[in-house]
Amino acid sequence: MKKTVDVSIPLGPVHPCFKEPARVKCETKGELVLNAEVELGYMKKGIERIMRGRPWQEVMFLAERVCGICSVIHNMVFIEALEKMSSIGVPDRAAYMRVIVNELDRMQSHILANFSYCYTIEHETLAMYLLDIRERVMDELERITGARVTCAYIVPGGVRFDLRNEDAAHLRAGLDIIEREITRYMKMFEGGPLIALRSRGVGNLSRESALEAHAVGPTARASGMPESDLRTRHPTYKKLEFVPVSRTEGDNFARIMIRFQEVLQSINLIRKCLDTLPDGPIRGGGIPGGGEIAYSGEAPRGELSYYLKTDDAGRILDISIQTPSIMNIEACCHYMLKGVASIADVPSTFVSADPCIACTER
Amino acid sequence: MTLLQSFKNLVRSKSIHVAYVDVGSCNGCDIEVLACLAPRYDIEQYGIYVHNNPREADILLVIGAFTPGWEEKLLGLWEKIPDPKVAIAIGNCPISGCVFDRPHSLIDPPVSKHIPIAAQIPGCPPRPTEILKAVLSLAPTVFEDFERRTQ
Description:
Chain A is α+β, with helices and mostly antiparallel strands. Helix content of chain A is 50%, strand content 14%. Chain B is α/β, with parallel strands linked by helices. Chain B has a five-stranded parallel sheet with strand order 2-1-3-4-5. Chain A binds chain B through residues 13-21, 41-47, 49-50, 61-62, 65-69, 71, 112, 115, 128, 131-132, 134-135, 138, 148-150, 356, 358-359, and chain B through 19, 21-32, 34-35, 37-40, 51-54, 64-65, 67-70, 73, 77, 98-100, 102-107, 124-125, 127.
């Protein structure tokens, strides 16, 4: 009988498939992955330590730079925490504008995640299609907020710029194109025999394991946990009658499909917002004071929580951020990667959980 | 300069391999480099091929303020790249540390302390077109008269 030697194969930190530095150590028996471990520590900047002792006006911009991909939600959760703490009201128009910008940000993040997955499984055609349509979303984001990535659009008591009528018309026209194209790409992904073979049944995460690993966001919703979507608790989303989507397969295919579905859902949410957008002021004013609060919101990758403590002058005394990726990375290396049939599936499974190392380590 | 040499210069400037390394950024510049791949900017039409393998790279794009995790690794990575090679710093972070360069942070900017940097692109983050322009402006000089320089 041939002896099979267990080998520990490290992937990373610089790897053609990973956008960011992380090292995945896989213990293998032949091609079968028995165990996986993620080694982090290449991106630790100590943002929370810098934030302490600074006025909220500065921390607002630091919070945005916790993660460059989902910068709008970091801005939104931090500002909404301050608003809730000091009971500052937000005009209706501004509340809807926040949802529009947040959903645009979610769309570009989900499309980018699906792009990386398709790029990792070497289906470059679909990857390039997705990256092309992402540029259109970035255009809309730039038209409204004035910047592509770090826009600092949301301020206490409102938003920074108003939505002009021509921008709204441009946004509607853009959404039509994006919806048409995304539906087409979704069919390509769903029906393509090669992509489906490469994705179905790989990296399984059952509902029980997802609960055990505290998986959040699209990763949890692909394993049949629609209740993990925190948008259902947000007052503006409640007005829009938001219902989260979910799938039950829990494999790579489901995780990519759920992101496509959420992009289409975001398009509908933005349309609803544009239809019901009331006239009125966009900034109500108000200065954050002292207090202590824990507040969470739904980032593109899952639940994002901020714990804040400020003094009367609005200086941050204590801050703690919990980002979604750390739970998804845990779920990925302890449950999904276990029993993956081939080492070639490890990068694609890791990317399908959409890990964001910059927010994980901060 | 011989005719052969000028021909070599021309041809080599149209075939550049790019690797990128993230030494502690917020991901913003990272996705702007990825956006250069998009059909709208299409970095590959200029003969520039972006991948992440330092062993066959000519240009290294350095993103992010320098974190302690990269203390010995970045120099090792830089030495793995075959000559001729240049490094481009993308964004404010590798130049000055941007918003992270505050008391008590763990970072150690600028990156030029650790590896030689040939060009810098300021911005938080810079636009894909700016990244493209910088890579294109450096592309002819990377291989220029390589044989004569190494003699």
